[in-house]
Design a protein that fits this description.
heterodimer, A: alpha+beta, Immunoglobulin-like, four-stranded antiparallel beta sheet, three-stranded mixed beta sheet, about 60% helix, about 10% strand, B: mainly alpha, ABC transporter involved in vitamin B12 uptake, BtuC, two-stranded antiparallel ribbon, about 5% strand
Chain lengths: ~450, ~350
């Protein structure tokens, strides 16, 4: 890119970065005024009154209303402890209390059941939401920036490890075949939904422990990957279909699979039964549920195993060789066709397992959960350097961390913006990604 | 017979109605970028977002205007929409146009998502009204309607007078922009674009500034897509950030590819075929459910919206595999390649 243009772009980005904090401050003030103005007159939305443990009104507590993981409204309690948040229309919303804004020595009674609640609103409903407080301290509140940094860092590690585990396949498939697979997110959703189908019986009771269901889902994920390769992409390569045409085909496939899943599994989100309700435990300054800790540890172990597979086994070495230089690998006697099938199996298995983790972490299992993750997976893959497994791991972790930690400084609604900005900035500064060497200029 | 006519009415309404016109305009813009220049750009919906907000915000200054003043307001909206699209093309193209095709695809989606997230954020809320969006900016436009003519089809109401007016304007824009694209593509400038699509290095070797040409193609296509956004906003009388999800771009691709990328007729008729098929199929299923031909256990009416997207995916895959040049395309000319 010509120098002046690059300068212009950097300036735009810098200006945006400077504008954000002041605007964030202004908007939180707006929220305060809004909450006071609309105290009585919410047409469709949520209202409530928050009292501290002593029974007096608690001003300045922040409440966030989310829909499908995106913030749709925010409110602060006024001097009378009252708040109101207007939402755009009927729908299912999550009402979340920002624990960091609670008054000192106050915490939410029963974090698991009250911190985040889901409501279905009809047009014209003004739903009251109560947040019972009691004495005590909770996450991140009245603590130094460093502790909050750690707390959000752990959250970022959780999301990052899920992105990493799901995107290893995406990156390796690109490495061995050059295919950008827009249907990779659907493998994630297949994993989460298959696990649910085995985990929960038709009458809503537990059919088998989630751990076993997750194993079955992983195997079926591997099978789905192999089926896609054998059934669709191998024949297409034989027909000499171009990579761009195949990319468009994966978009079609992604539609087909995603909405096919909706027809089969319905559109309402469901929840796993195991590990759903847990008390937070305290590790040093960080508080975390055993579930989240388990997700992080399991994901890291799986990533380690993938590393071992790639480094120590013949198959793994072959995978790396084909990803590095397909022709050279083929001429040194590697059965490239078999390696590609193995990569799809590995990628499908990891994506499906990541789907179960994602369903556990968010408490939502839904047909379009994979597509929601897809852009973050792409961001991770490109930040790390596409075509390599380690790049996807590092990139995924970084994207998760960057977006979560940004919450410390910027409003939650910019979380995704930061993940995508990281992607663009890396492309501008180091186009090969952090660990990649692949040529990516055309 | 009656049922068949009902279904045909629905298919026709979707195909030649506002939906057809909006997606045709969007596809004409995409065709300049993808079909002629070979840019695999997936942030198309960003241009529509800018066009829609341009008209919604500009018409806010023309409340109650009538006659020439209202027309001036609408023209100003269109000009602002196109200008914003050109700025967007610079921002989007600057960092991405030198990337390989597949990276371009991913990064442009991300840029469109950033724009949507910013539009719905509290940062821009004073301007865009956040998730609530902007309403009531179309009275002046509909007051200009000189015909107030309803259209019917075998005794069935096809378009209300209000719809007829916006559909007319939409298709006039489709025609005009097609003419412009047709003229430009048969000019030396257009031939350079095609040569970039066929072989970028060859174009560069001939001393052409490939980057500048790509940027121009992005801006031209973006400008046309912004007009699609203007029509869409005027039709819906409502703009809302969440009406501009990535899926819109994918559906535009489906229409363009069905018709044939790199042709003049393809982006006009592709979306018409796509929407007629989709809505027609939808109507058939609904009639089948109502009449009890399709058992409720197999399919419920709440599945219909999902089925239309399953169908979209299926069409896209089948067309790409068996007829990648689309209905009107020429296989010789349409060589898609990754490099």
């Amino acid at each position: 890119m010509p120098a002046p243009l690059r300068v212009l772009l950097s300036l735009v980005l810098a200006a945006a970065a400077l504008a954000l904090p002041t605007a964030a401050l202004a908007s939180s003030l707006d929220g305060l005024v809004l909450a006071q103005d609309e105290q009585d007159g919410v047409t469709t939305g949520f209202t409530g009154r928050i009292n501290n443990a002593a029974g007096d009104p608690a001003p300045g507590v922040r409440i966030v209303v989310e829909q499908d993981g995106e913030v749709v409204a925010e409110a602060l309690t006024d001097n009378g402890g009252e708040w109101a948040a207007e939402v755009p229309g009927a729908g299912t919303y999550d009402v979340v209390l920002d624990l960091t804004t609670l008054p000192a020595d106050n915490t939410l009674r029963d974090l698991e059941s009250f911190e985040r609640r889901s409501f279905e609103l009809e047009e014209g409903d003004a739903q009251g939401v109560l947040f019972p407080l009691e004495s005590g301290t909770s996450v991140g509140q009245d603590r130094g920036l460093f502790v909050r940094f750690l707390q959000f860092g752990v959250e970022g590690l959780k999301i990052g490890s899920i992105i990493a585990i799901t995107s290893v396949g995406l990156s390796l498939i690109f490495g061995v075949t050059g295919l950008v697979n827009f249907a990779h997110g659907e493998l994630v959703a297949i994993g989460a939904l298959v696990a649910y189908a085995f985990h929960v019986a038709g009458d809503g009771t537990r059919a088998m422990p989630l751990v076993f269901a997750a194993l079955i889902a992983t195997v079926i994920g591997a099978g789905s990957g192999v089926a896609l390769e054998r059934g669709i992409f191998q024949p297409l390569r034989k027909r000499r279909t171009s990579l761009v045409a195949m990319l468009v085909i994966t978009i079609g496939l992604s539609f087909l699979l995603r909405y096919g899943l909706q027809v089969v599994a319905g559109s309402a989100p469901v929840k796993y039964i195991d590990y759903a309700v847990q008390d937070r435990m305290q590790i040093g300054p960080i508080s975390i549920t055993p579930r989240d800790l388990g997700i992080i540890l399991a994901a890291l172990v799986v990533l380690g195993l993938v590393g071992l597979l790639l480094e120590k086994t013949r198959l793994g070495t072959a995978m790396r060789a084909v990803a590095d230089n397909r022709d050279l690998a083929e001429s040194s006697g590697i059965d490239v066709k078999k390696v590609i099938v193995a990569v799809w199996a590995l990628g499908g298995a990891l994506a499906a397992l990541g789907g179960v983790f994602q369903g556990l972490a968010t408490g939502l299992v839904q047909f379009d959960m994979g597509f929601a993750l897809l852009l973050l997976m792409f961001a991770g893959v490109i930040v790390g350097g596409i075509g390599t497994a380690y790049g996807a791991m590092v990139g995924g972790l970084l994207v998760g961390l960057a977006s979560e930690v940004s919450v410390l400084i910027f409003p939650v609604e910019f979380k995704l913006v930061f993940a995508f900005l990281l992607l663009i900035v890396v492309l501008l500064r180091k186009p090969t990604g952090l660990l990649g060497t692949t040529e990516r200029f055309g | 017979m009656e049922t068949v006519l009902d279904i045909m009415t629905e298919a026709l309404r979707a195909g030649v109605g506002v939906n057809g016109a909006v997606f045709a305009l969007a596809a004409i813009g995409l065709n300049v970028q993808f079909g002629y220049t070979g840019l695999l750009q997936f942030g198309h919906v960003a241009f529509l977002l800018l066009g829609s907000y341009a008209v919604a915000l500009t018409m806010g200054f023309f409340v109650g205007a009538s006659g020439l003043v209202a027309i001036a307001g609408l023209l100003l909206s269109a000009v602002i929409a196109i200008l914003l699209a050109c700025v967007m093309a610079l921002i989007m193209g600057g960092p991405t146009l030198k990337l390989r095709t597949d990276y371009l695809a991913i990064v442009t989606i991300a840029i469109a998502e950033i724009l949507r997230l910013l539009t719905r954020s509290s940062l821009l809320e004073p301007l865009t009204n956040g998730v609530r969006g902007i309403q009531q900016f179309t009275d002046e436009f509909y007051a200009l309607d000189p015909f107030e003519m309803a259209v019917s089809f075998f005794g069935r109401s096809l378009f209300t007078p209000r719809a007829t007016w916006i559909i007319l304007i939409g298709w006039v824009l489709v025609l005009l922009s097609s003419l412009v694209v047709w003229r430009l593509m048969s000019s030396p400038w257009g031939r350079v674009l095609k040569s970039i699509r066929e072989d970028e290095d060859a174009a560069r070797a001939l001393g052409k500034n490939v980057f500048a040409y790509k940027l121009q193609a992005l801006a031209l296509g973006g400008g046309i897509a912004a007009l699609a956004g203007v029509i869409r906003a005027l039709d819906q009388s409502n703009v809302n950030p969440d009406g501009f999800l990535p899926i819109f771009t994918f559906v535009t691709y489906a229409g363009l590819i069905i018709g044939g990328a790199g042709t003049i007729l393809g982006p006009i008729l592709g979306p018409v075929i796509y929407w007629s098929l989709l809505q027609g199929f939808d109507a058939v299923l609904r009639e089948g459910l109502d009449a009890g031909w399709i058992p409720e256990t197999l399919l419920s009416s709440s599945d219909l919206s999902a089925i239309r997207f399953v169908l979209t995916g299926l069409i896209l895959v089948l067309v790409m595999v068996f007829r990648p040049q689309g209905v009107f395309g020429n296989r010789e000319e349409m060589v898609l390649d990754a490099n």
